[in-house]
Write a structure and sequence with these properties.
The complex is a heterodimer of chains A (284) and B (149).
Chain A: H1 2-27, H2 38-48, H3 57-78, H4 82-102, H5 106-137, H6 142-152, H7 154-157, H8 159-172, H9 201-222, H10 229-246, H11 255-283
Chain B: H1 3-10, E1 12-18, H2 24-34, E2 42-44, E3 53-57, H3 62-74, E4 80-84, H4 85-90, H5 104-107, E5 112-114, H6 121-133
Parallel strand pairs in B: 1-2, 1-3, 3-4, 4-5
Helix pairs in contact in B: 2-6
Classes of the chains: A mainly alpha (284), B alpha/beta (149).
Amino acid sequence: MLKIIWFFAIILSVPVLYIAYNLIMAIMPGQSKTYILQPVFRLIKLFEKKDEGTNFFAYFFSVGSCLFSLIALYMAVAGFNFLFVISVLSMMDLLVITGAFSSGEFSGKMSAKRGISRFIIWLFTSIVSAAAIYKATGTLKLNEIAYLSENNGLIISLPFTFISLFIILLMKGNLLYFNFGISGEELTILGEALYTPYSGWSLAVVQIAQWIEIGVWLKILSSFLPLPNPVSFIIVSLLFLSSLFLDLFVSKVEWKKAARFSWGWAGGMSIINFIYLFYYLIFK
Amino acid sequence: MNWLNRIRMRSISVFIVQAGGCRDCALQFLMALSENNEIKGITVTGNPKHADCLLVCGCINEKSKEKITEIYEKMPAPKAVIAVGACACSGSLFRRENSGLYTVEEILPVNSWIRSCAPGTTEILEAIVRAMENVKENHYRNDEGRNDL
């Protein structure tokens, strides 16, 4: 029963975070205002729109990615092996990228290229992080990691791994310097979105898949804090919300620069933690 | 107005096309978005497949005509077209005999016109909302000729 509640709470958590963001922006003076429920309005609007594109595969790929994100969420909630969750999430990401590539359009191929470079970075980071977590805890099961962390605080022995996994979350949310220009909000032709072949309801499905994916990463990150699971989930969600606000003050960079930053912060941090643990275990 | 139409009006993605001219219409629109207006929920997108509303500014020549119709065809229905400024509505000063310029009305079914030069910031937002209010699920292709709204 608790797992079912977790499952639906995580699905709802990310839209709630975006709504909270709009709510705070509406209160803050001097900021551009929008409707508080605009993410939900946008989703309903997209479901109602007709997708007249000839790219039939976009529908298949969007539904497939949503399905895989739901499986990953179930695995994260049930406390499966961290690497299983990562493999299902990579399958989800690959489906979205393949859908973009299958459009045959120039912008679709270009955005698939960006998606692949992002995919390589986050997958590499996740694998190194998994190795570091295994070295520190001796297990990769998320429920066991959360249990160990509740008593010992995994963040103390794996601070850099936590940062690198948080950078993956920022990359997935297209925030700060880790925006690969695939959010669909760019004004230039060169900043076209990954979701180029997706429009109408297929875009809405991909949007839901992305929200669920962010929720899965929030759940994984919450396993690191030395607090009960719901409390640590709320704290990580608040960290994500604060980075949404921080994004307002951080200028956008070109996507190749974003990739370089991501290698340093996500890949570099996870490697530092792994090397530190390796030496610590050998020479202690 | 049904509830779907209401929701549609609360999240409008706009694609701007600057076909030619002084660019003031496009700048006025961006200024309108940065102000604290009563009209909210309008965002700019760089992807025609995400757009609900096409904002055409400036004089349209043969080359930009093709691009504009291409963009229009990529947009998912229901979609609205707005001719912004005197150049887009009538060709303004630049329209002469054999000048090769088109008005938006000649190439696409237009939902709203803003004829002033340069249009006011609030006028543009108002026109977008009105156009989305009356938008219908019609489809138009370049080779099928104009369709009636």
